[in-house]
Amino acid sequence: MEYKKVAIIVAGGSGTRMQSAVPKQFLNLSGKPVLYHTIAAFATAFPDMEIVLVLPEAHFTFANDILSAFEHRPAVTLVKGGETRFHSVKNGLQQVTTPSVVFVHDGVRPLVSPTLIRHCYDTAISHGSAIPVVDMKDSIREIAGSNNAAVDRDRFKIIQTPQTFLSELILPAFELPYDPLFTDEATVVERLGHPVYLVAGEESNIKITKPLDLTIAEALLKDRQAIA
Asked: Are the CB atoms for 43 and 112 separated by under 8 Å?
């Protein structure tokens, strides 16, 4: 079967934790908005990638300005976000009308590599899903009331995006009623009894949520550009 490629990029955040009046997806990162780098990664990974950008309607003008900065404007559809991430993704999924590999990605993970995106695609084709994860490096403890205990960190992974699925798995899952326990797309798909397949993520695929993250992303991007 021939699958289309659809990236649903969720960009509904505000600048609260960034201590900024500008939403974090529009902050400057090496001369371009954070969201520009995110879109560029998916457009580079596959020339036939269709991108669905889910964001507040008030930010559509910002988004169009970003798209106009591309020398070759990628195929992007703007969709209004919902009350929660679940509802935003559900709105984006309405654009998926034929058999597809669907990537759901945080708009504020601008350093995702085209290599990881392609790997997630290949894995979803063979296993139905691909969830990028990285190891925990810090020691962790579990809190139970007033007690706490050390936990084996090797039993846990840190989840990244793009969480990638065949449309035949993710579309029916998002017909379920909303549950606050749906913390990401994998938890929604699992609710229908589908196991999810983990793949190695990237240490550099960080999420921009605090000012320090932007500083780290700047340094990582400079290193990447120097190597290129």
From this structure: no
Quote the tokens at residue 34: 């954070």
- Residues 6 or more apart whose CB falls under 8 angstroms from that of 184 comprise 85, 159, 161, 163
Phi, psi dihedral angles at 188 (to 5 degrees): -70, -50
Q: Residue 104 in contact with residue 78, Cβ under 8 Å? A: no
Domain count, the chain: 1
- Centroid of chain to Cα 199: 15
Candidates 216, 212, 199; CA nearest to 161 is: 199
The token pair at 93 is 């999924």
CA dihedral 179, 120, 59, 206 (to 10 degrees): 90
Dihedral angle over CA of 19, 54, 71, 5, nearest 10: 130
The span from the CA of 161 to the CA of 43, in Å, is 16
Q: Tell me the sheet residues that pair with 143.
A: 148
**Confidence bin at 20 (pLDDT 50/70/90):** low
Instruction: Tell the residue number behind the tokens 């983990």, with chain if given.
Output: 198
Give the CATH number, domain containing residue 19. 3.90.550.10
Confidence check: pLDDT of 186 > 80: yes
Domain hosting 156: range is 4-227
Q: In this predicted structure, what is the pLDDT of residue 61?
A: 95
Predicted local confidence at residue 80, as pLDDT: 96
Residues 92, 105: contact at Cβ < 8 Å?
no
Please tell me which residue, 20 or 153, carries the higher pLDDT value.
153
CB 221 within 8 A of CB 200: no
Closest CA to 216 of 35, 30, 38: 30
